[in-house]
Design a protein that fits this description.
Shape: elongated
Mean pLDDT: 80
Low-confidence stretches: none
Strand content: under 5%
Number of helices: 7
Distance between the termini: 84 Å
Helix content: 55-70%
Oligomer: single chain
Largest sheet: none
Radius of gyration: 30 Å
Length: about 150
């Protein structure tokens, strides 16, 4: 990686900020900056290329992008809720949960005909779907003799 001077680093940071704010116009802005900073257009293009590489690295790094996306989605959810746009809220919430790695509960339908299955069968089904320990251990039901 090329080592830049302190002044060049400041200029690269300035160009990066312009790019983030969509104020950098490709093919034009570097010329204006060359004039402003009394640089050759070639040197201004080099600074621009470095800034562009760094911004690209930022926007493709999930750990850097995730908080920005989460905050943007949270704001969008708040706006949709205030506008009572509940379909939008649901869609945005799904995307928000996905970005944060939260999985929504899946709906699982199990059909059991009375008399076909025992409580132990139900327990096995639930543990098969959700893992061991998903249900508390059954409490024994006292017999008539034990009650007295």
């Amino acid at each position: 990686m090329k080592k830049w001077t302190r002044t060049s680093e400041i200029r690269i940071a300035h160009i990066m900020q312009m790019m983030r704010e969509l104020r950098f116009v490709r093919g034009d802005t570097y010329k204006a900056l060359a004039l402003e900073w009394d640089l050759s257009e070639r040197q201004a293009r080099k600074l621009t290329a470095e800034a562009s590489k760094r911004v690209l690295a930022e926007v493709t790094d999930p750990e850097r992008v995730r908080p920005l996306l989460a905050e943007t989605l949270a704001q969008a959810i708040r706006k949709a809720m205030l506008a009572s746009e509940f379909n939008s809220v649901a869609q945005l919430a799904r995307v928000y949960a996905e970005i944060l790695g939260i999985k929504a509960a899946a709906q699982t339908l199990v059909t059991v005909t009375p008399g076909e299955r025992t409580p132990a069968d139900a327990r096995r089904i639930v543990e098969g779907l959700f893992g061991s320990g998903a249900m508390p251990a059954p409490t024994p039901t006292p017999t008539a003799e034990e009650k007295h």
